[in-house]
Amino acid sequence: MRKWMIWMVCLGLGLGPCVRAFAMDGSKTVTVWEEGQAATAQPPGGEQPAQAKSTNGEQPAQPDPLKLNAQSAVLADGLTGRVLYGKGEDTIRPMASTTKIMTCILALELGDPDDVVTATKEAAGQPKVHLGVQSGQTFYLKDLLYSLMLESHNDAAVMIAEHIGGSVPGFARLMNEKAKALGCENTYFITPNGLDAKETDEAGVEHVHSTTAADLARIMAYCVNLSPKRQEFLEITQTQNYFFTDVPGKHSYNCTNHNAFLTMMDGVVSGKTGFTGGAGYSYVAAMEKDGRPYVIAILGCGWPPHKTWKWADARKLFNFGLEHYQMKDVYEEQRFSPVPVTGGLCWDDGSGAGTDQVSLTMGQESVGRELKLLLGEDEQVEIRQNLPVRLAAPVRAGQKVGTVEYRLNGQTVRSFPVYTENGVEQITLKRCLLRVGALFGGLWEGQRSAG
């Protein structure tokens, strides 16, 4: 009888907290989440016009205080891609040779500048504007990129596409995959040079070579600020004149940059023009001034003879950004409450995992972190902690369990991961029996010593 009572005491002392944990969780592995309170909750301001969300080519009427010539245009933050000013920015339109910024950045990322590229019959047959290559001619990839971006040669674009993607359709697939990865949901590439094109996919759906001003600006922001090859991209697009020959050195070529806006406004660092009969005049450009990065995209900006309208629109958009937005560091250090863990080991078994809660951290990468955003005078950033109410064992140290979101105008502009600092082992029958055995052994030894 006395031994039975000792066993009951051991069970009560050793397993009581764990029994409560099982009762709370119902023996299921469940993680319950809740959205944390915002650190700031003031409504954002700013002077942006209403932004339509049209993807069918029909753009509802909307305010345009800048009175732009373009059918679609956007001014965006060059780092986040956030739209600061838009006119028909989500309307799908053909984009002509502004396509070539994607062709260029993919070639830089996937190719080698010293690659030798051979002209095929298809490349040699491209319409003007073209370099005038002949089938079988060879060039270095680096030289073709200057031909592509300065003179906008269509045959250079096809040579690059066939070299990098194996074929024009193969390269178009790479272009579309990259666009999706960058968050461009309304972009569809068919050609590497931007010539007007249509195709029907395997499902019988017809696609047009097209994008939106918002998507095009997002691609440009990647090219000049985020790509691992951004410096090479900037070097090419900032060059005024470039001379090269084919590989044997038998034919020489000279390219002149047609992006006149590079010298028309202080701070402009890159750009690409475009024109087709279907697209009209188009333009995409980037600026950095006083530490403030901007990108613009302009589509359907008139037809001949209105070639200069795009320059007027570009100036208006960049000036709007300079006048209304300032760069601010909105990063704030975060404090986190410990999170309880159900179904976990409730005692120290020597592993260091005997606890019923875990501490949280944003990790070592958060040290010295900053988050700079272009903000209007009345705009406020909302900081939201998305963390679990409780976790179910087992939980490992360094496990991602939540995020800290920075939101502006209802959209997430940056998200930081939140990790556990310590782990909690899961309670098992074997651990319980070992725990009871240890407690019983300790009591038994104590009684023997006392006797």
What would you call the shape? globular
Low-pLDDT stretches: 1-59, 348-354
Mean of residue pLDDT values: 83
What count of domains describes the coordinates? Answer: 2
- CATH architecture of the largest domain, by name, is 3-Layer(aba) Sandwich
**Helical amount:** 25-40%
Distance from N terminus to C terminus (CA atoms, Å) equals 18 Å
Secondary-structure content class: alpha+beta
CATH class of the largest domain: Alpha Beta
Number of DSSP-assigned strands: 20
Major sheet details: 7 strands, mixed
EC number: 3.4.16.4
Catalytic activity: Preferential cleavage: (Ac)2-L-Lys-D-Ala-|-D-Ala. Also transpeptidation of peptidyl-alanyl moieties that are N-acyl substituents of D-alanine
Family: Belongs to the peptidase S11 family.
GO molecular function, one term: serine-type D-Ala-D-Ala carboxypeptidase activity
Give structural notes.
This protein is an alpha+beta fold and 451 residues long. The chain has 2 domains: 2-39 and 332-431, D-Ala-D-Ala carboxypeptidase, C-terminal domain (Peptidoglycan synthesis regulatory factor (PBP3), Domain 2); 72-325, 3-Layer(aba) Sandwich (Beta-lactamase), CATH 3.40.710.10. It is 30% helix and 25% strand. It has helices at residues 2-25, 100-110, 121-124, 141-151, 154-165, 168-181, 213-226, 230-238, 309-324, 429-450, and strands at residues 32-38, 72-77, 83-87, 116-118, 138-140, 198-200, 206-208, 241-245, 252-256, 268-276, 280-289, 292-299, 325-329, 339-342, 357-358, 360-361, 372-376, 382-392, 400-408, 411-420. The strands form 6 sheets. Strands 1, 14, 15, 16, 18, 19 and 20 form a 7-stranded mixed beta sheet that branches. A 5-stranded antiparallel beta sheet has the order 3-2-12-11-10. A hairpin with a 5-residue loop joins strand 6 and strand 7. The protein is globular.
